[in-house]
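Researcher: Quick sanity check before group meeting.
Model: Go ahead. Protein one:
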Amino acid sequence: MRWQVQSAPVGRILVIGVWLAGQSSIIGMLIQAKANPAQVARVGWRIGLPIFALVLWLSILWYGLLGAGVAVVAKAFFDYAAFLYSSKLKPRSIMLNMAGHLVFLVIATVCADSMNSLSGMAAIAVALIAGNLAWSFCESSELREVASRLRQRLLPNAG
C-alpha cells in the first residue's frame, strides 16, 4: 500500500506529460507535412535529447521518481513550445485552446484523488467529457462545420 500512495503524485504528473507529448506530436507532424522533417529532428535529437538526459539524471538523483515525472513533463513542454515556435502558426489561439483542455485535465486529476464512489466518478467523468466537447465546439469552427455536415447527412430533412 505504501508504494501506491507514493506513486500517485507521479501518475498525476505523467498524465499531464502524456497529454503534452500528444499535443507536441501533432504539431511535429504538421511541421513534417510542411516538408521540414529536419526541423523536428533538430529539436528532438540535437537539442532536446541531451538536455533531457541531463535534467532526467539530475532530477532522479535529487528528487527520485517524482523528479523523473517532472523531467518528462518538462521535456514534453519544451518539445511543444519548440514545435509551436517552428511551425509559424499563431500561438495565441492554440495556447488558449490548449489551456482550456488542460484545465479539464487538471480538474479530472483533482477529482480522481478526492472521489470514493464509482457513481460519483462516473458523473464527474460525464460532466468533464461534456464540458471538454463544449469547449472544443466553442473554439473550433472546423469542428462545428464537421458536426453540421454530419447532422445534414444523418438528418437531411431536419433543416
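Researcher: Fine. The other one?
Model: Protein two, sequence then structure:
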Amino acid sequence: MGDTVYLWKVDGRVVAHTDLGAAAQLDGLSREPDKQVTAAEWSAAGGLARIIDGDIFLGKTDEEKQAEENTSRVAQLKKYLFETDYIAAKIAEGAATKEEYTDMIEQRAAWRAEIEEKIAG
C-alpha cells in the first residue's frame, strides 16, 4: 500500500485507491479526490470509510464503539452469571443456604443490573 489513500464520494459511497492512475483507469475517477489520508490513518480506521452528513468519515462513530463495548460487556457478565448458576441450584436443593453465598448473590444482582443498564442504553 502506498503512503496515501485517496478517497472519493461516488453515488453515496466512498471509493478508496492508493494510486491515482488506477483510480482513473479502474473507476474513471479523474477528478481530484475528495479526501486524502495516510496509510496509517486508513489502517487505524480499519479501512472503513463512509459518508456521514455529507462528509467522508473514517472508522466507527463513538456511538458504534460504545455499542460494541456494551455488547462485549454484556457477554462477559452473562458468562459470569452462567459460571455461578450452580449457587442457585445448591440453595434450591438444600445443599447450601443463602447466608453462605450472600456476597455472591449480591454480586449476581449487580451483574444483572449492569446488564439491564447496558442493554437499555
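Researcher: One line on it for the slide.
Model: The helical segments are 20-27, 39-44, 62-83, 85-92, 102-120.
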